[in-house]
Design brief:
With 212 residues, this protein is of the alpha+beta class. The protein is built from four helices and 13 strands. The protein has helices at 15-20, 42-52, 110-113, 192-207; strands spanning 2-8, 23-30, 33-41, 58-62, 65-76, 83-90, 97-106, 117-121, 125-130, 139-142, 152-154, 165-166, 173-179. Strands 1-3-2-6-5-4 form a six-stranded mixed β-barrel. Strands 10-7-9-12 form a four-stranded mixed β-sheet, with no helix packed on it.
Length: 212
């Protein structure tokens, strides 16, 4: 299990000052446990997060001891796109937890390769239940069997690791092949009546005697 060093943070400390010192404000919470404000080193967190993702269990190490936890939520700076706050959720390694796991498509669809259709990913993540130590980083879905228009893969067809249960509806579509829509060039319809009227008017003008 990956370890992440953290310090208990004084709630009176300015969050901006915490961030200026290369730290990220965080909170450690759990069922029946009092929430603890923390701060973690930005570089250390990003390294750990890259390795475990949101479904990997990490050990939060503080001066009061260690706690197994999941990265529950990460808030980002809207401009810099860097983490500015983290929620760590304490877990019991012997009790199942429910977590949203990203869907990863593997293989190549013959329908897409031949240009018959386009791939439509209906679900980008699925909710699973498993012991914290059994949580996968991602759920792989093999699309190599999608050969024709309207071919699809539903939740019930996904193979998951032992000890993992998908909680979404079994018939829900994960990915499918859709027909390619041809772009039709829009043209403005020609008003033939207007042209005919204009032509008649022009003809009458030509036939009318000139005024001297």
């Amino acid at each position: 299990m990956n370890k992440l060093q953290a310090k208990i943070r004084n709630v009176k400390d300015s969050l901006q000052e915490v961030r200026k010192n290369g730290l990220i404000p965080a909170v450690l919470f759990g069922k029946g446990v009092e929430s603890t404000p923390l701060s973690v080193e930005k570089v250390a967190f990003q390294k750990t997060w890259k390795e475990v993702g949101e479904s990997g269990t990490i050990s939060i190490e503080t001066e009061n001891g260690s706690s197994p936890a999941l990265i529950s939520e990460v808030q980002y700076d809207p401009i810099k796109n860097t983490p500015i706050h983290i929620d760590f959720r304490i877990v019991d390694m012997n009790k199942p937890v429910e977590v949203d796991i990203p869907v990863s498509l593997i293989g190549e669809s013959p329908a897409v390769k031949s240009g018959t259709g386009v791939l439509v990913k209906a679900l980008h993540e699925v909710k699973v239940s498993a012991l914290p130590g059994d949580l996968p980083h991602e759920i792989e879905v093999d699309i190599s069997g999608l050969q024709n228009i309207d071919d699809k893969i539903s939740i019930s067809e996904i193979k998951v690791p032992k000890g993992v249960t998908i909680l979404d509806e079994a018939e829900e579509t994960v990915v499918m092949i859709a027909a390619i829509k041809e772009e039709v060039e829009e043209t403005t319809p020609i008003d033939l009546t207007k042209i005919e009227v204009e032509e008649k008017g022009k003809k009458k003008e030509e036939e009318a005697p000139s005024e001297e």
